[in-house]
Structure formats: C-alpha cells, structure tokens
Amino acid sequence: xxxxxxxxxxxVARLTSAPAVLAAVPAERIVxxxxxxxDRAEYPLILIQTYGDPxxxxxxxxxxxxxxxxxxxxxxxxxxxxxxxxxxxSAVDAAxxxxxxxxxxxxxxSCVRVSETELIERASGQVLRYLGGRYELLVS
Length: 140
Known about the structure:
Blueprint: H1 3-16, H2 19-24, E1 30-32, E2 45-50, E3 55-60, E4 63-78, H3 86-96, E5 99-102, E6 107-123, E7 126-139
Parallel strand pairs: 1-2
Antiparallel strand pairs: 2-4, 3-4, 4-7, 5-6, 6-7
C-alpha cells in the first residue's frame, strides 16, 4: 500500500468522473503539486496537493491497518472576488466529500472535508484566487 498514491488516485478519479466538475474544468486542468507557469496556465484549474506527511493512525497486531492522508483540493483562477470560484468549489466538494473506493495502490475507506481553504496571491500582474478544502482520507 502507498497511502499518498492511493489518496491522490482517489481524488483525481472522483474529480475526472464528476460531470459538474468537468463542465467547469477540463480534466487536463486538474493538476497535482503546483500551479503551472502563471503566464501560460489556462484557468480555471484545480490544484491537488498532499498536505503534510501521512500519519499512521491505526495498527492491528503490529501491522499498519489505516493511514490518514490530508489532501488540499482548490480551484484556482484570476478573479476580483470569490464569486466565480464558488460553484466550481461546490462541485469539487460534492464529488469528494463522503466518498470511498479502491485504487491501484490502496483502498480509501473515507474521504471527508475537514476545513475550507482560501488563498490570494499576485502572479504575473494578476490576482489569483484559490478556494477549496482540505480532505482527510483513510487509506488501507
């Protein structure tokens, strides 16, 4: 089992199979790690990042049974306010919160949003806004 890989695969699979998400953001703009070069990036995009290190949470007979992984999933786009991001962030949350499933590298028994996140930054002369949430996934 690779908990980080399983958590990421779960998030990507849920987002790329959600019609409401894909109606707003094409699958090729669901990215992992970092925002592409702001000068050339196409928006809106969805940014997926692992938040911190995984924490082993449950052991059975000295064997790891579940690992908790926290993933940040945020909509990113240039905007004067959060208004244009809200419907996309809501579609992302509907696609992820309360889900579970099997991936190539592990089983996600729970995916729950634990907080909302927002960020504003200036890049290449524009204001980029981020809106989304942190999700805790239990992986075995």
